[in-house]
Structures are given as C-alpha cells and as structure tokens.
Design brief:
- This protein is α/β, with parallel strands linked by helices.
- The strands form four sheets. Strands 1-5-4-6-13-7 form a six-stranded mixed beta sheet, with helices on both faces. The chain has a five-stranded mixed beta sheet with strand order 10-9-11-8-12, with helices on both faces.
- Strand 15 and strand 16 form a beta hairpin.
Length: about 375
C-alpha cells in the first residue's frame, strides 16, 4: 500500500529539463578535496525532459519521513530549477518489516523486509527512487535496483537508554550501571551478542517498533533498558534520552548505521547522475567498506555481525568488523586500515579473515 503526498504545489511536466546540480566536490565522491577543506564546485550535466513530480518511496515511521524530507531538502538546495516546482511526491509504503512486530526479523526473513515492498514499487515503476536507512538494506539488492547515493553519516554509535532500576553511569564501565539479572530490550542480535558477551548475567527480551514505541515500553517498566542507534535519537530530537553513548570499538555498530541510502532503477541513468551530484564522499567510502565486509561474511540473518568504518585524519580508512554467536559465547572482533580508495578490498579482506577464523556453524542459516 502506498499513500501519495505532494510535497509542493503542482508544476508542468518537463520542469526537470536541463537541470543542473552545483555541489561541493566533497559531496560528490569526486576527485579530491582542496587544501584546508575548502570545496570547489562541479555540475551534473543537463538531463533530458521528464515529467514531474518525481515519486519517492519511503516507510511511514517518523524517522523514515524525517530522513526522506531532509534528503529532498538537500536536492532542492543544490538544484535551483526544482525549487519552484512540484518536484517530488512522497509515497508512504507499508513494508513487511513494519507490519510484523511480534517476531524478530531473523525469524521472518531478515532486514530486507524493510525494503521488499518499496523495491517492488520501484521496479514496477510506481515510484522513481526510494529513501532508506542504509543498515536496513540487504547486501545484495534485487536485480535492476542499485544504490545510487549515500548521504552524510550521522553519529554511527549505539546508545543505551536505562530505566529507574539502573544506577549512575561510570565512564570507565558504562554497563556497570545495569543491575545483575536486568532485562534489556532489543531486537538486534548484534547488540544482544555484544551485551551478553560483556555481561552474561543479563537477560534480553525482544522489543520491536519505532523509536517512540520502544521508549514507551521502557517508560512503562517492561524493560530495564534498551539500546538504540544514536543517529535516530538525534534526528528525532531525542538525543537527551540517551543515558550513555557507547564507544563503537566496544559496541560495534551495524554496517551502514547512521547513513541514508537512495536506491533507483539501474536503467535510470538521469536520476542516478542527479543523485551522484549530492552524494557524500566519506559516506560512500565507509559504506562500501562495511557492505563489502557483510558480503564477504555472507552470514545469515541469524548471524550477529557488526561493521564500522571511519576516515582517519590521514585520509586512510579504519574498519572494524565483528562476528559472534547470539548468546555471546563466541565473539571475534578485528580491525584493519588502508587507503580509502581500497574500501571494498579492505572490507572483503577483513570479512574473509573473520569468516576463516570463526566456527563454521555460526554461518549456517
């Protein structure tokens, strides 16, 4: 099901003709950045005539809508010809991942269920492009769909939100604030595995839903604490709800966490070129490394996997990868770094090493 919402008043077909995007080079994934971080500019070449509005597919959660509208504002900022036209129309699409809330994603088909119906709409021509949380995209996209653009990464770290039974936070050991035997709510096997590896005395209960509903369950006393992506809290203005933000080397985030990704039909060259003009180069590099890590591990949706890449001040890319058992009884974590231009190779190399040195049963579906 999709619900269409025009973003601006209607405009005549063809307003997209000969549009140009002027964007800083560091947002384009282009050839380098001038000294001292001052960007030069470049333009996307003019495009052929096509009717407006462009139809954008999105999930309907408050966070998904925030991400979609922020992304569209970004396009309008860099594409003046679209500012005074009805350039975009939102199509809210209910996904299987949103409808089924009483089971883990691992039990119903994996995180790709947050994109399945959206990509069906894309391939059917009902929408022109789609906005996603990159961590919710499967590693191998459906034939005919490509990841065309990655936006500037928000803070990739995980945050703990603790209830009244928990004590004060100690910087040296944030988990010490959680009392023995406490019940922590999470639907993420990655978070569960790392939490139980560090604190096997804790209990983990399944909690699903959007950010607001999870916080509501915590407030209702159903759990003693929960873990959420800090990026989502910040985007929704809820950052103050975080009791503590966890170091990404201690609690390795999900691959793609904090990044908004845009998918289009592979054959839609015009739209692909438009989106390339606003892509964030750093996000592109780290996402390529993290998704290559996932592809090399080729774990099932029941395999806890973490991946976090960041660019160092030297310009090199540092990548941390993690594989574990859901109960935390096994956890292997390693890092490597190299040239950002070799992001995919680094991800593949680290993933292959983690896979080779992990028990084979971890990767059985």
């Amino acid at each position: 099901m999709s619900l269409a919402h025009p973003v601006l008043p209607s405009a005549a077909a063809g307003a997209f003709a000969h549009s140009r995007v002027t964007a800083p080079a560091d947002l384009r994934g282009g050839q380098g950045m001038p000294p001292h971080g001052h960007p030069h500019t470049a333009q996307v070449k003019p495009h052929a005539r096509r009717p407006l509005p462009l139809r954008v597919g999105t999930r309907g959660s408050p966070l998904a809508l925030w991400q979609t509208r922020t992304f569209l504002d970004r396009i309008l900022h860099f594409c003046p010809v679209l500012r005074n036209a009805s350039a975009f129309e939102e199509h809210v699409i209910a996904t299987s991942g949103d409808r089924i809330q009483d089971r883990r994603l691992a039990d119903i088909g994996g995180k790709g269920l947050f994109a399945k119906e959206i990509h069906e709409a894309l391939l059917d021509g009902r929408i022109d492009f789609a906005v996603h949380s990159l961590k919710d995209l499967e590693t191998e996209l459906p034939p005919g769909v490509v990841l065309a653009c990655t936006m500037t990464r928000e803070d990739a770290r995980d945050a703990m939100v603790l209830g009244p039974r928990c004590g004060g936070i100690e910087a040296a050991d944030p988990l010490a604030a959680i009392p023995a035997g406490a019940l922590i709510g999470t639907a993420s096997l990655r978070r569960q595995a790392q939490l139980l590896h560090a604190r096997p005395d804790l209990k983990v209960g399944m909690i699903r839903g959007n950010v607001g509903s999870r916080l509501g369950k915590l407030e209702a006393g159903e759990f003693d604490g929960t873990l959420l992506a800090l990026a989502g809290l910040k985007r929704l203005g809820l950052e103050a709800r975080a009791s503590v933000v966890l170091d990404p080397e201690a609690m390795v985030p999900a691959a793609g966490q904090g990044i908004v990704g845009i998918t289009v039909r592979a054959a839609d060259v015009e739209l692909h070129e438009l989106l390339a003009g606003i892509e964030d180069r750093a996000a592109r590099a780290v996402s390529r490394a993290e998704r290559a890590l996932l592809a090399a591990l080729d774990g099932s949706c029941r395999t806890p996997i973490g991946g976090h890449a960041r660019l160092l001040p030297t310009g090199e890319l540092h990548l941390t990868g993690l594989v574990a058992r859901p109960d935390g009884s096994f956890l292997l974590k390693r890092s490597l770094h190299g040239a950002a231009a070799d992001a995919e190779r680094l991800g593949c190399e680290l993933g292959e090493g983690l896979r080779a040195d992990s028990p084979a049963d971890i990767f059985i579906a």
